[in-house]
Amino acid sequence: MPDEILEFEFEDAYRLLDEVQESQFLDFKSKEIKGKGIQKIVTAFANAEGGEVYVGIKDEKEPVLEVLDRWNGFEKIEDANSLIQNIYEHIEPAISLEYEFIKIKEHEFRGLVLKIIVFKSKDLHYTSDHRVYIRRSAQNLELKNQKEIMDLQLSKGIISYEDQLLGNYSSDELIESESLTQFLNSYSPKTNPEEYLKKQRLIRKSGKELLPTIASVLLYADLPSAILSKKCAIKITRYNTNEDIPRRENLGQQFTVEGNIYNQIYLALECVKTIINELKVLSQDALIGANYPIEAIQEILVNAVIHRDYNISDDIHIMVFDNRIEVRSPGSLPGYITPDNILEERFSRNPTLVRLLNKYPNPPNKDIGEGLNTAFQKMQEMRLKSPKIFVEQNKVIVILPHERLAEPEETVLEYLEQNIEINNRTARKLCGIHSENKMKRVFLRLRDRNLIEMVPGKHGASTAWRKTNINK
């Protein structure tokens, strides 16, 4: 239990009550909520993308004399014990969360609000009466049938869609496919198709039949789109606009890329490269050729193909605008992955695709687990702003903006507006510069303009710089 009570300034509390609305990630509940009610909310958040619930704040629809009357908290911390106990003892499996109590400065009589922070979970969580809920928009919806629950498990990566067997496509057809033959021609040690598929668990017995898995079709069938009931191609569209929402008249060329996922990746990449080569962007009042790092585009595309949710019947969409490239991948982020931790954490929804795609010659996922980090690095090296990653309407969206980063000198000065000093290592990381000497020359140019100076007493590896007006 938290030892300290967080104190809100009056203005912050008023803003929370008056301006903030319930959403996919936020809920307000009165302190009268029962144990089963709090279980429902918390499991719904954990089963979706996570979120926060404030207990002790009346719903905005409840009639009150003034806005601040919505803050109707607990008299003391112990009054919330039963709710906290309900969360920790009656939800299966246990949920990862944090909580704290909040009061309003000089308005302590309004009570303590319990703020519960629920993290996205890799597990499927049940309430004490064995019900499953998920947060959608500002609602906590119950999943009432087994198909809905299974779809959620597939989305989270608890069970794998790629391992399911196909009844409408024979293993003999797969064994004779041209794609599998081409792959095995370069595979070592030499093996025959059926032996390879059995060893990799890509064909399995179902009764008396030997059936292929969905992963095997995606990897080695000549045209998976014609076999699978769900869409699995890549759509590429050129929009002649900078607008966030393009209009029909902005629509340019459109392409559909099909085939096994290895061929899809490289064909789609070539298609995007061709479009980019014809693309012009405005720079300092002149039109110049767009210059995107191809490695970044490839890593984003590969990530979309190997981590998308193939249980959702939709294609991957690549949209090339005048000022950006957007890649939209079906399905939310798997497991406990969020846009905030995606560069540090690892969780694969389709581990078989990831592993076996890496066995191809010139594998597109050569650096397993480092793809997105490479994309960020390559954008920075080309002095472009970092990719933006977010989840929207059950899609993962990655945007590569064609916007120039600030010059290194500007970046250093901006950092020193908020920090006392900066060293070479920190500056290189901020500016995307790998060379220590190149970064040193940036410092020297700023010094020569009398904007920064060396911090006295720091030499060698500990050398640091500060703004020239420090202590003057």
UniProtKB/TrEMBL annotation:
Gene3D superfamilies: 3.30.565.60, Schlafen, AAA domain. Pfam families: HATPase_c_4, SLFN_AlbA_2. Residues 22-143 form the Schlafen AlbA-2 domain. InterPro entries: RecG_C_sf, Schlafen_AlbA_2_dom, Schlafen_AlbA_2_dom_sf. Signal peptide: none annotated. This is Transcriptional regulator. It comes from Macrococcus carouselicus.
